[in-house]
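Quick log. Single chain, no ligands specified.
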Amino acid sequence: MTSTISGEGKTFVAINLGGILALSNKKVLIIDTDLRRPKMSITFNNLNDFGLSNYLLGECNIEQCIKGTEINNLFYFPAGSLPEYPNELLTSSKMDELLENLKKYYDIIILDTPPIGLISDTTKFVLLADTTVYVFRSEYSKKEFIVNLEKLKQELNPKEIIIVLNGFNDKFIKQSKYGKYGYEYKYDIYGYYTDNEEKQSNTKKSMKKYFNYFYKKNK
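-> predicted structure:
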């Protein structure tokens, strides 16, 4: 889960996507890998005590880091304390071992990474991920950010890219064109895009179910 810059809503989207999948009977873990500006603990209204950085530094075990949420099957792994050299921790072999270990216990792992347009840490996770979710925010993200996405596709060749357009209502235009750059992406009410139509349909149904639940809960 990444974006071009901070403020486009990738953490919000990561948590909502995690909730959708958890409500679809998947055991989901969200890991906050932004060791410079972590937001996960604030969003979940919890203390950012032990977390990813502490585990990678050998200060705690996995069980001390993983937190539960109000949604059944949804868990999160906070960033922990701010380390001096975050890039070294994220690119370490211990990080690779952690992910391999966690795959044994969770159906889906969502990595909430730093913005790829600002921090190089995210590059590693794009290469590792089965799917890269790239978040744009309506009336906030610049048109030029599409070029960053195209650059990511060419240089890193991710296995799959899903684009999420965050922060728009149901009156949003169905089709967006990005001027002189000539790129065209189609969105529906949930801002979801993929080449796999069957996957798109199933995800839309899950998203609708989750947002109805989320709306009623917070009414």
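The chain has nine helices and ten strands.
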